[in-house]
Design a protein that fits this description.
It contains nine helices and eleven strands. By secondary structure, the chain is of the alpha/beta class. It has a single domain, classed as Rossmann fold (3-Layer(aba) Sandwich). Strands 2-1-3-4-5-9 form a six-stranded parallel beta sheet, with helices on both faces. The longest helix has 18 residues. It is globular.
Length: 285
């Protein structure tokens, strides 16, 4: 299958391109700006990963986020007729819950970024129901590992702090907040499996998560893997902080997906190997 991939040079995009190749598909990298109209797309499918994705930044410039994430998705959809379309969304669209979140759980976007993803999901679903495309939205939980360079993410930051490449990390609250982590390679596998199961005229949503763990669990795992403590500055919890976020991935597993790289230890080891300091080099503090 010939697959156009937006955001192909990004963190998740590189893993998706590799996974497509492994499964015999032909990935095509899109370098076009999302704000520009697309001409006819010569591909069997589109995996849409590109977009603006900084949660805190989205509060400062929500109009930009709507223009890129909603307007860009609309520009892509206008260029499609009869193709499969996969959208990368976020677990941030959900209302907080103490029980594992299913795809039918209530939505309550917690940021302009998440709100734009929820709006893009609606666009994609209605386009599929009209018969124009086949669509699957993947709601990604906390993607990690694979040499991630975004130190705003908790595992990446903790590993970088242990390696001495950043000056420690700040933790808001008591470290007991739980998030659901999934290795980027398992995310890529999910996209390929969902792509192959997608049918024109149908619309589906799948959660992508694997391993619930608290911030303290992450800090302990990093210390164990690296043999180095993580320099943490503890801050008061943010008002309204989500205490628990876990994914029910039964729907994705029913398609045959099995995460094979996403234990907390495996994720941390993989990230450490990609960013560990040279022998003899210690933390910068």
């Amino acid at each position: 299958m010939r697959v156009l991939v937006t955001g192909a040079t990004g963190y998740v995009g590189r893993a998706v391109v590799r996974e497509l190749q492994v499964h015999g598909h032909e990935p095509v990298v899109s370098y076009q700006r999302l704000s520009e109209p697309f001409g006819p797309i010569d591909a069997d499918a589109v995996i849409h990963l590109a977009g603006a994705a900084r949660v805190r930044e989205s509060f400062e410039d929500p109009l930009h986020y709507y223009a890129v994430n909603v307007g860009g998705t609309l520009n892509l959809l206008k260029a499609l007729e009869g193709q499969r379309f996969l959208l990368a969304s976020t677990a941030g669209v959900y209302r907080p819950s103490d029980v594992p979140l299913t795809e039918d759980s209530a939505l309550e976007p917690s940021s302009p970024y998440a709100a734009t993803k929820a709006a893009a999901e609606d666009l994609v679903a209605w386009a599929a129901r009209s018969g124009r495309i086949g669509a699957t939205t993947l709601r990604l939980f906390n993607v990690a590992g694979g040499g991630d360079t975004d130190t705003t993410r908790v595992i990446t930051r903790a590993v970088a702090a242990a390696a001495g490449t950043v000056d420690g990390m700040e933790v808001y609250g008591d470290g007991t907040a739980v998030r659901d982590f999934v290795h980027v390679r398992d995310v890529a596998s999910a996209f390929v499996i969902a792509l192959e199961a997608c049918s024109v005229g149908e619309s589906a949503v799948c959660n992508v998560g694997a391993t619930p763990a608290s911030v303290r669990d992450v800090l302990d795992a990093v210390a164990e893997v690296s043999g180095r403590p993580v320099d943490v500055t503890w801050r008061p919890a943010h008002p309204g902080e989500v205490r628990m976020q876990r994914a029910d991935v039964s729907r994705l597993r029913a398609l045959g997906w099995q995460p094979s790289h996403s234990s907390l230890t495996d994720i941390v080891k993989d990230q450490w190997l990609a960013s560990a300091p040279a022998p003899g080099r210690g933390p910068s503090r």
